[in-house]
Amino acid sequence: MYLAQEICQKIHMKNLLVYSAMSVLLLWSCANPVSWENDIHIPVLDDRVTWSDVVPDSLYEAGVDGEPAHFVLADTLDGWDWTAWAQLPDTTISVRYDGEGVLENNVPVQEGLPVALSDDELPVIEINLSKPEGLELTKAQISGGSVQILVQHSLQCEIDVQFTFPGVQIEGAPMEITLPLPPATETSAGGASDAIDLSGANFDFTQVGGFDSNALEVQVLAISGEVTAPNGFYLVSETDSIVTNLTFQALEVETVSGYFGQLTESASADVALLDTIPLPEPAIDLEGTTSSLHVTNTIGADLRLFIDTLQFDEDLVVGDLISGHDIPRAVWVNDVPVPSEWSLDLGGSGSTFLDELEGFPRSLHVAGRMELNPINTSEFLMDRLDVNHPPTFWYQLRVPLRLGINGLVLRDSFALEGLDEVPNFDGFLHLDFGNTFPVEMMGTVEFDRLDGELYRDTLLLPQGSVLQGLIGEATLSIPVNAEMLMPGGDVTVELKANTFGPQAFTGHEQVRLQGRLEGTQLIEVE
Amino acid sequence: MIAWKQMFSLMAFALVMFPFGSGVHAQNANSRGEGLALNFMMPSEPGASSFEIWANQRSNALSSGFLFSAQQGGFLTRSFLQGMIDDHPLLGGMGGQIGWSKRFTSRPLKDGPWALTGAFGSEVFASVLWRRELLELALIGNANHTGRVDVFNGTGMRLGAFNRISIGMEHKDTRQRIELSIVQRLAGFEWGIPNGSFWVSENVDSMEVNMQAYGAASLDKFPGEGGGAVNRLLPSYGLGISGALPLTSELFPLQFLVDFQDVGVMWERSGGLVASLDTGFATTGLAVPFSQFFTEGSVNSDALTWQDVVDGTSGIQPDSLYFTSDSAHGRMLMLPTKVQASLTWWPTPDVQLKASARAGAWMPEPELTVGLGWIPGNRLSFGIDYRTGGWGGGRPVTWLECRITRKRILSIEIEDPAGWIWGSEAASNTYGRGVRFSLRRIPGEGWTRFMGLPARNLSYPDLPSPERLLKTSSQP
Questions:
Q1: Is B317 contained in some domain?
Q2: Comparing A336-350, B128-142, B435-449, which segment has the lowest mean pLDDT?
Q3: Span A31-53, mean pLDDT?
Q4: pLDDT of residue B464 exceeding 50
Q5: Is residue B348 part of a domain?
Q6: pTM of the entire structure?
Q7: pLDDT value at position B10?
Q8: Are strands A241-259 and A87-88 parallel, antiparallel or unpaired?
Q9: What is the enclosing helix (H) or strand (E) of B441?
Q10: Model ipTM?
Q11: Across the interface, which of A7, A41, A275 has its CB nearest the CB of B146?
């Protein structure tokens, strides 16, 4: 116990010793504030201005092997919704079997035996769609949609009715619909309904004799069930009928053939060309420029394109291209379309397209119409469409980058707030420029301080050359210290360039700006 | 050599009997007058005992002049700092210890050759190491050495407060000693950079920084969560072996001594604080969204820009760069071991030559000492040593031993005496200071010319007869 007590006492003494020593060290080291200067060189800024900053990457192609870059506009025009053409409007078709026609009258119904129908007078389902006008279908493959069938009758007996559509194949078999119909009463018809999914169904509208298109055969078998008439039997009369309503809903075709009728759709599109500040005194050498309009027609139907308006900014393009242009149909080989390619040279003779382009327009507006089957070929029933091969309407503009500018390229200003406490730094922000554009540039930085002082510095950036591996280098040094930063003010940056006429650019040119902070930091330790 | 089984039996007996043995020791010391002890040797006299207190601080890079100037405050000139950096070694360091120790030795047990011995005490260690490049970056900057990779590897700091108690056996004749040490680390803190570098290209157009750092503290909560309180400390414990092996020549006045303390390991308990950082970046500078001037804001760059930094939309979460936890796993660490070997030679009765080497105690390199002592009489000896290594370079050491009673010697050792003249011109070129006081009780009989130390120089007939001298002895 004595030993333990002594140890505990010593440990307690040691605690005091430890904390006393630490306190003394801390107090000693913090006796007075001390300061010193620290020279630092730190890279703080690295940026590049390239063509991609002026022109979106998708709009230019860098040159290869010293060739000039090309300003390229190639895109589809989405003015026409081709998929809408593959959607058939909802249609209801009514088929009536009555005692004056198919339904033989004065014949009693007997349980378990077919209701007597005259085969000679079975009706044919005719498809008549209001749009497009003159549409005649021979075959169609359905990718989606359904048919709803509603059957009503006046016979006072139960009926099991079975419809067979030989012209509609689902999974290789004719479409069959079986419905058990309740008996009718003196006051109400007996009826039932059902819906059939038509996804994947193949329609053949040509199997009915005497019809080349738009017709479907329907076969009906009605087996009488229990007779529910009060007297125990039922005699079919002239007023009896069996009425069938077929409603096709949301039908989408995958392939369709026949004659698509005549249809005209209007469309327009706007294309941004140079979404930037206007170039000063621009000049462009358009030699080698190509501009064209293309249609890749994958529809087995003739098209006619009317270009009504072609406008750069506020200026209309005139010429022979402002008219109708026939686009031939695609040819189908082994159920696959072989598209027809159609092109229109927008810069062809008589067109002012390239002339307008020299003015560095910012946007292009196109408006026109597309006419389906401008010539009636309904007697041939040779139109075809596969929605998996939609036609493409696209344009392409390739302009060699031979530009000329002279004047202010960039001017920007911003307010620099004054700093209440500036770090104890005294030095410079050195801005190192490396230029590979084949053009000399003049940069100006102005700092109009709120205390009335004006700081102004200029920079002459020599021209460079990508092909020669030449980099024009220059450095702009901006003081960074309390005197500069505390007052605040307005900073204005200007960049001027003069190409002295159109210059060819490779697309690889850039101005690299690197900033390094070099100076002395006063470090103070309290 | 004593058998281990016997050794453990003796140590167990010692633990039980220590309080009584200590009482006997005190009683003997109090009841025995100096004059009564002449030519009288008690058959079972207690062994050596001592009480020591010491403190020292040293650096191999930061001179007293530099530290004094920094302490005084004000502006430190570039030439002043550059001079310090020019003389700075590749790896700078500063360390210090402060502590005390009490040793006791009982009478031989059952009139046998072995006596119970033990010691207890406390010591605080502090160690700071840094690379010259790091100090140069902090004090001078990187302007004068762009293009050079500044390496921070090895930079770190350790701080620990230890309590220790050791119990063992000592041979009454040879003074060979073996002890079992129990060490408590009351508090500990460490921080280090195993891997770190900083580089700025010669043209100041690119920069690369890598940093792997760690930290640990024996607190169960962070200081902001009440972890600064004393009761939040997480002490750790360890076991070690201590001992001494003095060898004295029978024919020549030579003594060789090997002394070691706390050779063992410590188990740091789990639940402490731990932090780590492992990150790096390379940059040529951040971009400025000049592009918006051209494309009217349709900038799609994923790179970090100054605008992101200004707007606070950089996406960099500081918390994601480092890891902290107050549930560190336990680990095993080395104890702050000390090992010392010394060789002492008395070429004449008046002169002592000594060479020693000391290692451990968190010193970055061994500490070597050579020295010359003069023993003008049987009450006084003094000398001067040259010491190098440890935490710093070469420095003088003066020592004085004064026999205040027949069996008690008061010693004082001052390391780098000029360093104590803090603020003076004489101290400006010193790199540290140290002091050690000790009060030793030596066993044996009578006054000797050698301050109680053995002598075997037979060429001096006026020496006490050999049979009156101890055959061996050890310094505590």
A1: no
A2: B435-449
A3: 86
A4: no
A5: yes
A6: 0.66
A7: 40
A8: antiparallel
A9: strand B432-441
A10: 0.77
A11: A41
